[in-house]
């Protein structure tokens, strides 16, 4: 029997001494950032990567870009353009995930798709129980050249025949 416990420790400095209590025995860690706020990428490198390496060095890390729906929001794009910025791109997220040694990069939105949030937990679960330390990307015929996890069959069902793609599933999670 396996247990899933989810802790959401706040990043506020006030909790810096208490937050490490949530890390012991963690098999996986989700490091999240806000796609509509490029400055949140800095906290991934400056705070969360180092903290997770220090307190749970054996945990698999999944980098998650949240608020995917805001990437194309006109108000967000207008506000960011005032500072000569754009929302975080999928490529930037994938690059950062590789840079911090994450086993997966996922993007999700809870506004339009509960499935994309579910996919993030699915990818994290696969990463935490996988006996392979670093799953490799599979090349696909898609424009970005990566096979997304929602298009892959469960490991026990990988055969020569491609799986039918479920259109109700988000196509935002990438195993790396």
Total strand count, please? 4
- The number of helical segments is 4
Q: Order of strands in the sheet with the most strands?
A: 1-2-3-4
Kindly identify the CATH topology: Rossmann fold
The number of distinct structural domains comes to: 1
The parts where pLDDT drops under 50 for at least 5 residues are 132-176
Question: What is the structural class?
Answer: alpha/beta
| Helical proportion, percent range | 25-40%
Average pLDDT metric:
75
**N-to-C CA distance:** 27 Å
The CATH architecture classification is: 3-Layer(aba) Sandwich
Shape: globular
CATH superfamily: P-loop containing nucleotide triphosphate hydrolases
- Tell me the series of helices and strands, N- to C-terminal: EHEHHEHE
Plain-language structure description:
27% of the residues are buried. Strand 1, helix 1 and strand 2 form a beta-alpha-beta unit. The C terminus is likely disordered. The protein has four helices and four strands; from the N terminus they run βαβααβαβ. By secondary structure, the chain is α/β, with parallel strands linked by helices. It has a single domain, classed as P-loop containing nucleotide triphosphate hydrolases (Rossmann fold, 3-Layer(aba) Sandwich), CATH 3.40.50. The protein has a four-stranded mixed sheet, with helices on both faces. It is 29% helix and 12% strand. This is (Atlantic silverside) hypothetical protein. Keywords: GTP-binding, Nucleotide-binding. It holds the Pfam family Ras. GO terms for molecular function: GTP binding; GTPase activity. InterPro entries: P-loop_NTPase (IPR027417), Small_GTPase (IPR001806), Small_GTPase_Rho (IPR003578).
């Amino acid at each position: 029997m396996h247990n899933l416990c989810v802790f959401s420790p706040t990043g506020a400095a006030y909790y810096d001494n208490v937050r490490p209590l949530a890390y012991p025995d963690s098999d996986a860690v989700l490091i999240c950032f806000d796609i509509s706020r490029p400055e949140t990428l800095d906290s991934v490198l400056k705070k969360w990567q180092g903290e997770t390496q220090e307190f749970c060095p054996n945990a698999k890390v999944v980098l998650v870009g949240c608020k995917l729906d805001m990437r194309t929001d006109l108000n967000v794009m207008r506000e960011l353009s005032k500072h000569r910025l754009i929302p975080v791109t999928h490529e930037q997220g994938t690059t950062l995930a590789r840079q911090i040694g994450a086993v997966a990069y996922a993007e999700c939105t809870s506004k339009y798709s509960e499935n994309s949030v579910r996919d993030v937990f699915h990818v994290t679960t696969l990463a935490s129980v996988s006996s392979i330390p670093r799953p490799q990307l599979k090349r696909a015929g898609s424009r970005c050249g990566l096979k997304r996890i929602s298009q892959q069959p469960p490991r026990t069902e990988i055969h020569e025949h491609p799986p039918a793609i479920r259109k109700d599933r988000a196509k935002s999670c990438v195993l790396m």
